[in-house]
Design goal:
Blueprint lengths: L42 E5 L4 H12 L3 E6 L3 H13 L4 E5 L5 H15 L4 E4 L15 H11 L1 H10 L8 E5 L3 H4 L5 H21 L5 E7 L13 H5 L17 H8 L10 E4 L8
Parallel strand pairs: 1-2, 1-4, 2-3, 4-5, 5-6, 6-7
Helix pairs in contact: 1-2, 1-9, 3-5, 4-7
Length: 285
């Protein structure tokens, strides 16, 4: 994968950010990625699936034969484009607009997915927000609540509502972050939620092991997604990802296949684990 040159003269006023405004636009899937029906006829519910890593997961899953239900907040144009790309892969795509901070909405999203497809095989908890702040004293209480209510609470809401539909052989995949392992001085609250996701993954995996439902996670490093220009600017944006051993930011296309692996039978003897896709940072856990 080639290095990307990020235009530092771009920023977006609000999160989660819009992919169509990014320069360069992220790569969703490699042209030479060949699907092999690893997820044929599976139904997947994916939060934050309109862009970035979530979009990459949706398109990879569709190429592997899955039907996809995507929850998105308000990024209408990105969501419609993702739906189109999923359908171009031969898959079906249901778009569900709403805020995952609302538990009743999360229950409704599960119900709509079942109404559309009849069953559910995989949950991908992925939606997140972040508010970079240099000092803990400057973290706004409102932002602290938003970060936790977006990044970890919905994982509980979605899984609780889905449990009556999941069965042996089904999977749950959570998106954590490299920041959960190495920390982040300017993303203390965000990193804390990602650490909570690691513990959630490990604990839930033990709880569901006897039911044959596997629970794993992916911990991306610096990946070029709409969240980045929506939260960083200028020099911070220009140097994004350059401090990892591989010397560059990653593309969503380099993360999506990990979710395919965790959702498929290829990972049948794996639960409670985290895959680290971070450009070479060696971290514990």
């Amino acid at each position: 994968m080639e290095n990307i040159t990020i235009d530092k003269n771009q920023e977006q006023a609000k999160q989660p950010g819009k992919e169509f405004k990014m320069n360069p636009e992220p790569l969703t899937i490699r042209k030479n990625y060949k699907g092999s029906d690893k997820l044929k006829s599976k139904v997947v519910l994916l939060t934050g699936g309109d862009s970035g890593i979530g979009k990459s997961v949706a398109v990879h899953f569709a190429r592997e034969g899955a039907m996809v239900s995507i929850i998105y907040l308000n990024e209408e144009k990105d969501a419609l484009k993702t739906k189109s790309e999923v359908e171009n892969e031969g898959g079906q795509c249901l778009l569900i607009k709403g805020d995952v901070k609302d538990e009743q909405f999360c229950k409704k999203a599960i119900d709509e997915t079942i109404s559309k497809f009849g069953f559910l095989n995989c949950i991908v908890n992925n939606a997140a927000m972040q508010f970079p702040t240099e000092h803990i004293e400057d973290i706004k209480t409102e932002n602290l609540h938003t970060t936790f209510e977006t990044n970890i609470y919905p994982y509980f809401y979605i899984v609780k509502a889905a449990m009556k539909h999941l069965k042996e052989g089904d999977t749950i995949i959570n998106t954590t972050s490299v920041t959960a392992y190495r920390g982040s001085e300017h993303l203390i609250d965000y990193a804390s939620t990602k650490g909570a996701i690691v513990s959630f993954t490990r604990s839930l995996s033990k709880s569901l092991a006897k039911k044959g439902i596997r629970v794993n996670a992916v911990a991306p490093g610096p990946i070029w997604t709409p969240l980045i220009p929506a939260t960083f600017e200028g020099e911070d944006l220009e140097k994004f990802g350059k401090d990892v051993p591989m010397g560059r930011a990653g593309q969503p296309a380099e993360v999506g296949p990990a979710y395919v692996y965790l959702a498929s039978e290829d990972s049948s003897y794996m639960t409670g684990q985290v895959l680290h896709i971070n450009g070479g940072e060696v971290i514990g856990g």
